[in-house]
Amino acid sequence: MKDFILLFRQPDYDHLHLSPEAMEALKQQWQDWIGGIAAQDKLAGRGPRLSQEGKVLKAGGVITDGPFVEIRERLGGFIMIKAASEEEAITLAHGCPALASAGSVEIRAIS
Amino acid sequence: MKAADISLKQLFQQEFAKMVAVISNKFGLAHIETAEDIVSETFLTAAENWETKGIPPNPAAWLYTVAKQKTLYHFRRNKILEQKVMPALTARQESTEEANLDFSHENIKDSQLQMLFAVCDPVIASEAQIGLALRILCGFGIEEIAEAFLSNKETINKRLFRAKEKLRTAGLKMELPPASQLSARLDNVLHIIYLLFSEGYYSQTQNEILRKDLCLEALRLGLMLTAAELTNLPKTNALIALMCFHASRFDAREAGDGRVVLYEEQDETLWDTALISQGIHFLDLSARGSEVSSYHLEARIAYWHCMKEDAAEKWEQILQLYNQLLQINYSPSVALNRTFALYKANGREAALIEAEKLKLEHNHFYFLLLAELYKEIDPEKALRHLKQAYSLAKTQTEQQGIREKIDRLSA
């Protein structure tokens, strides 16, 4: 078993516009997906949730309000999982709700 | 058993633990064995005396007086010996001459709380811990403890002896841990109480009274923690709520022949509504603060189970709670329960996909769950899973239950 990190990249949308019911449904989707990984005893750790805003430091001391201005997706959060191979890690990443909202999951081994 | 015998037994259970705690508090944990002997002798005297003269109007006070005399006699006699053998006595033991045991309500309460922390100290191996808790904190007899663990008296005696040795050699003191360590040490205490309760709730022993006794004692120890401000924390209340909700179904789940009536088949008029209300009270108290312990999640799951109707909201809530529980505390049974909740909330197909991923190939409950999920859509497959479950079942009662399912499905 190796540890992998799954990074969720999602379009920068504003959650404030969601109704409480839609927020709840979204939360349930994420929880069902993570619960499914945990049920297989393959969850190695939960990353803290990242805040909506952030700063990016670039060469020359340039500070920007975040990556959103340049790339379509921003980092939404991450979890750590246990998997026998990269292939299995990819299998576990399937079903991630980020994919359903035009986002992506980046799978990286942790050494 | 006659009514008088039962009350004497209950009296023993209650007072044994109190007296051992008070005597140990006075003379130190190193003398815990002596304290036990003194209290046992006290009850022997009581039994002989009460048989001819009848039970006194205030039996507890009677017992305390006799215990005081015996304690004083023991330590006075022993002191002569100890002074010859080991001249360097600690200051605590030196004052035994004028020792007067304090059996006030306040001191009994404090002593028992300190004893609870001493017994649950992580230096003692956890298998011995529950036994020691049953003996020292709940006043259970060696035979009862052996029965609860499906073991024999010799094994239990050895285990208890080693645990008490540990109390002595590790130099544990009768005192509450300092505030900085209290929360972590309380986690140990709560865990032992939780194990004690589970031992009673899921025990293999056929003795229903014993099982119920174990559960009620665990509940009593939990309530003891609420009497002190330092230990009356949200997680303590969550554990108590959890025990109340489970215990409320105790009568409904006993089939009378040692078998357990499954939740789905229980007569809910047998559920104890007073215990459910008590559980809700403690669940409310547990919501203070921001910590979410596994006891919080398990208590909420148990709370939803107190509603028999299969409302969609119920199973969705239970599913979400299991999702959270798995993230902080994985176990195969939680994974299986989570998948069952998924079936109830999102349907058979969704649950089957998740169930097939679990691969708990050595767990007969896993195959029972698969059989349940396949029952309607592929009876052949369901039957194969039931047979697999049968071959993995550990007890005769479990096998019998699975056999009945096989017969029903084949019919």
From TrEMBL, chain A:
It comes from Chitinophaga nivalis. Belongs to the YciI family. It comes from the Bacteria. Residues 49-110 form the YCII-related domain. Gene3D superfamilies: Dimeric alpha+beta barrel. InterPro entries: Dimeric_a/b-barrel (IPR011008), YCII (IPR005545). Pfam families: YCII. This is YciI family protein. SUPFAM superfamilies: Dimeric alpha+beta barrel.
From TrEMBL, chain B:
Residues 185-286 form the DUF6596 domain. Gene3D superfamilies: 1.10.1740.10. The lineage of its organism: Bacteria, Pseudomonadati, Bacteroidota, Chitinophagia, Chitinophagales. InterPro entries: DUF6596 (IPR046531), RNA_pol_sigma70_r2 (IPR007627), RNA_pol_sigma_r2 (IPR013325), RNA_pol_sigma_r3/r4-like (IPR013324). Signal peptide: none annotated. It holds the Pfam family DUF6596. Residues 32-79 form the RNA polymerase sigma-70 region domain. It comes from Chitinophaga nivalis. Coiled coil: none annotated. This is RNA polymerase subunit sigma.
